[in-house]
Design brief:
heterodimer; A: alpha+beta; two-stranded antiparallel ribbon; B: alpha+beta; 6-stranded mixed beta sheet; 6 strands; about 30% helix
């Protein structure tokens, strides 16, 4: 092998090595990026759902009722307004996905309201402590019927609950209000 | 073998290497420039909350804004023109609740985008993605306040 051929071969080997290095670095960068995005996506989705629920809760609490805003109604409730709160909640959430409101009073009382179910059925079954169904099958609503018995198309349904919380000040302490929404 | 043929043969692997390197570099550039643009959900949410939490249609006193209380004096086309954006369009519709004297009204950032038959979801470039949300709101018309709903539809053109 003459000197020139040897130099050419060395140059080619060096080029191949540099090329392989570029490919490896590129693949590693893409892999790291994909992993990072993959790990961030669930949190991002959760943040968006939480923001959606929080925005809905703000609107809900400010909505006027005959006794002032919905928040006022919750604050003045001494137990006699339970049915009205449930009725108002069901009425205001007619056009939303499944949602549930949990109100915890400082004296230990709790009030639950669920959208899409008649207020009478809910108040007759108080206290309503069943959680929102997390699976299309197997879950039971507050009336005891299996989730999906209302004729909903659940073929592509994947429940994604998100919770927004608020505190309403009252004379005897803070009232905790939780809105759980399924998106 | 002629010298020309020999040179061509020696250059073939180099050309293939260069082609592969170009493909890899183009792919990387494409991935890194497009990944942030394909967050339709984020774009829609940002636009939606800009409408909801700003004073564009919501009642405000001084610097304080009251999200959830729609000021009907602001609920007009001129205010929506403030929200005009090239790729994203909004349709806002207020509907009065029972016993509320406020008129049902719909305003748009771009009415043409919401003409019948134009609002659908379509994957791919040139297609659209949309989101519809309904909030219970207070409709404030002068000194009168009553319950109603605010229906917001956001349509975004795919990148």
């Amino acid at each position: 092998m003459n000197r020139r051929a040897s130099v050419d071969m060395m140059t080619d080997i060096f080029s191949i090595l540099v090329f392989v290095l570029i490919v490896i670095v590129a693949l590693v960068l893409l892999l790291i990026d994909a992993k990072k995005l993959q790990s961030e996506k669930p949190q991002l989705d959760e943040d968006l759902r939480a923001q959606k629920a929080a925005t809905f809760l703000i609107s809900l609490l400010r909505t006027p009722t005959p006794q002032g805003t919905f928040a006022d109604l919750i604050i003045i409730n001494d137990g006699r307004q339970d049915a009205e709160i449930v009725r108002t909640f069901v009425d205001l959430t007619k056009s939303t996905n499944k949602a549930r409101l949990v109100i915890k009073y400082p004296d230990g009382r709790m009030l639950y309201a669920m959208s899409g179910i008649s207020p009478e059925a809910q108040t007759a079954n108080a206290p309503l402590i069943q959680p929102l169904p997390v699976k299309p099958t197997g879950g039971r609503d507050i009336t005891g019927r299996a989730f999906g018995d209302y004729g909903e198309d659940l073929s592509s349904y994947t429940p994604q609950p998100s919770i927004a919380k608020a505190q309403l000040p009252s004379g005897s302490g803070n009232i905790q209000v939780e809105l759980e929404m399924m998106s | 073998m002629r010298r020309g043929q020999a040179e061509m043969l020696s250059w073939m692997p180099r050309l293939i290497m260069v082609a592969v390197a170009v493909v890899i570099i183009v792919s990387i550039v494409y991935v890194y420039t497009q990944r942030d643009l394909k967050a339709e959900q984020m774009h829609r949410a940002a636009y939606l909350y800009r409408i909801y939490y700003s004073d564009v249609i919501m009642f405000s006193q001084g610097a304080r804004i009251y999200p959830g209380i729609v000021d009907m004096a602001k609920f007009n086309q001129e205010r929506m023109d403030l929200m005009t954006y090239e790729k994203t369009f909004a349709q806002l519709k207020v509907s009065p609740g029972q016993g509320c004297a406020v008129q049902q009204k719909t305003i748009y950032t771009n009415k043409l985008a919401f003409e019948e038959g134009k609002v659908w979801q379509l994957q791919g470039a040139g297609g659209r993605n949309l989101e519809n949300v309904v909030y219970p709101v207070t409709l404030k018309d002068g000194t009168r306040e009553c319950a109603g709903t605010l229906n917001i539809t956001i349509v975004r053109t795919n990148q």
